[in-house]
Specification:
Strand content: over 45%
Largest sheet: 16 strands, antiparallel, barrel
Oligomer: single chain
Radius of gyration: 24 Å
Order of helices and strands: HEEEEEEEEEEEEEEEEEEEEEEEEE
Shape: globular
Length: 399
C-alpha cells in the first residue's frame, strides 16, 4: 500500500475530509438495515466506502474499501486503490494495487472500534443512520449486505459446513492449530495465518504480513476451496476424504495419493509446473513418516530418514512439510494433506545422491499444557559448500 493512502486513510490527516461521500444510502433499501440497529447484527454484514485523497503537490489516491464483519470480534477490510505520485526520478506516474487489513472490534453504543491486528492502529466508526457508518468527518461506509446475528458462536459463527464428513482434523489431535506463523531471519518475509473453525473444519483462513488475504473455505463432496479476493486454492478429495490433487488460481499443480487401504497417509506427492517436475515417495512405520525419497524428473535426488521423540504430536504438526517443499506449509492445517505423524520429529538424516550425509535437528518450545508454541531446526547444507549449520525459519503456533 502506498504511503499516501496509509497516511490519509489510517492516520486521518487533515485532508481526509476531502473524501468522496459517494457511498450514499442504498436508495432501494436492499442493504437490509432499515429495521433495527445494524450494530446488533454486525456478523456477516458488509460495508463499502469510496475515498479520494489529494495532496498539495498534486499527488492523489482514490479507491474502494470493503469492510466485512466475519465473527463476533473480527473484521476484515479489502482495499482496491489507484493514484498518481512523483517517483524518485521526479516523474509523475500512476500506481494501483490491493491491500487487506485485519481487525478485532468492539461495539459501544452507536459506535464500533476496530483495532488493526498487525500494527495496533485503531479507528472508530459511528452509526449515522441504519445504513451508514462514518469515521469522523472523513470516510463514509454504506451497508451493502445486512448481518445475520451477533455471532456469539466463536467456532465459525453462523457458517454452514458441508462436504465429506470424514475430512477435517485427525482424531488423535487434541488441540488443533489456531494460528501458524513463520519468522525469517531477514524479517521482511514474515507472515501469520489464523484459522477459524466450525466444528472440526476450518471455514476461514486469514493471512497477514507478506501476501496478506482472507480466504473463505468452502466444501463439497469432492472438493475443498480456499478463496480470497485475489487467490484461490482447490483440493480434489479422494477416499478417505484427503486431497488427491491441488490447483491454484495461477495453475500451480500438485498431485498426491493416499495408500490403497485408505488409512489417510499420503504415499506419493508430485509437483509438476513451469519450474519442472519433482515427486516424493513416502513410507510410514507405526503412524509416523519413516523415510522420503525425492526425485527430480525420473532421477533420485535425495533420501530422508526420520527419527522421533517420545512426545505425542497432540497438535497435528507437520515438520515433514519442510521436506516436501511447496512454499505453502500453512495449507496443511486445513486438514486435507494427509494425516500428520503421531510423534514429534527429533531429526531427519538426509543423503543426496552426489553429496555427503547431513542432519536436520529439531527443537521445540511448549506451553504449560504441552502444546508446541514454536519449533525450529538447524541443518547441514545439502551440498557441503560450508561446514556451518543453517537455522530454519521459526515456526510459531497458537491453539
Amino acid at each position: 500500500m502506498k504511503q499516501l493512502f496509509m497516511f490519509a486513510s489510517q492516520m486521518l490527516v487533515a485532508f481526509a475530509c476531502l473524501a468522496f461521500t459517494a457511498c450514499s444510502s442504498d436508495d432501494d433499501g436492499d442493504g437490509g438495515g432499515a429495521n433495527g440497529n445494524p450494530l446488533d447484527n454486525l456478523v456477516g454484514s458488509e460495508w463499502s466506502c469510496e475515498y479520494y485523497n489529494v495532496g498539495d503537490n498534486g499527488e492523489y489516491e482514490e479507491g474502494t474499501i470493503q469492510l466485512m464483519f466475519v465473527s463476533s470480534d473480527r473484521a476484515e477490510e479489502h482495499v482496491t486503490y489507484s493514484g498518481m505520485e512523483w517517483n524518485i526520478d521526479d516523474d509523475y506516474v500512476r500506481y494501483s494495487g490491493t491491500n487487506d487489513n485485519f481487525y478485532t472490534y468492539t461495539v459501544s453504543g452507536n459506535s464500533v472500534t476496530l483495532v488493526n491486528s498487525d500494527n495496533g492502529y485503531s479507528k472508530t466508526l459511528t452509526l449515522l443512520d441504519n445504513t451508514t457508518l462514518t469515521e469522523g468527518t472523513g470516510d463514509v461506509y454504506t451497508l451493502v449486505k445486512a448481518g445475520s446475528g451477533s455471532g456469539d458462536d466463536d467456532e465459525g459463527g453462523n457458517v454452514s459446513v458441508g462436504g465429506n464428513p470424514q475430512t477435517g482434523i485427525a482424531d488423535f489431535v487434541s488441540a488443533p492449530v489456531r494460528s501458524f506463523a513463520m519468522e525469517f531471519s531477514q524479517g521482511s518475509r514474515d507472515f501469520k495465518v489464523e484459522y477459524d473453525y466450525a466444528g472440526n473444519k476450518v471455514v476461514r483462513m486469514r493471512r497477514s504480513g507478506t501476501n496478506s488475504g482472507s480466504f473463505a473455505v468452502t466444501y463439497t463432496d469432492s472438493e475443498v476451496t480456499a478463496a480470497s479476493q485475489t487467490a484461490s486454492y482447490t483440493f480434489g478429495l479422494g477416499a478417505p476424504g484427503y486431497a488427491n490433487y491441488f490447483r491454484d488460481k495461477d495453475g500451480y499443480v500438485w498431485s498426491c495419493r493416499v495408500s490403497g487401504d485408505n488409512d489417510g497417509y499420503i504415499r506419493y506427492f508430485e509437483i509438476d509446473n513451469i519450474n519442472g517436475r519433482r515427486y516424493y515417495t513416502i513410507t510410514y512405520s507405526g503412524g509416523n513418516v519413516s523415510s522420503i525419497e525425492e526425485y527430480h524428473d525420473q532421477d533420485l535426488y535425495c533420501t530422508y530418514n526420520f527419527s522421533y521423540t517420545s512426545t505425542d504430536n497432540k497438535n497435528g504438526l507437520y515438520p515433514e512439510a519442510s521436506i516436501i517443499d511447496t512454499g505453502l506449509e500453512y495449507l496443511h492445517y486445513l486438514g486435507f494433506l494427509g494425516l500428520p505423524s503421531r510423534k514429534l520429529v527429533d531429526k531427519i538424516d538426509f543423503k543426496p545422491v552426489d553429496s555427503s550425509y547431513g542432519t536436520m535437528q529439531f527443537s521445540y518450545e511448549r506451553d504449560s499444557e504441552g502444546n508446541v508454541t514454536s519449533y525450529q531446526y538447524t541443518s547441514d547444507p545439502i551440498y557441503k559448500t560450508t561446514n556451518r549449520r543453517q537455522p530454519s525459519p521459526v515456526f510459531k503456533f497458537t491453539y
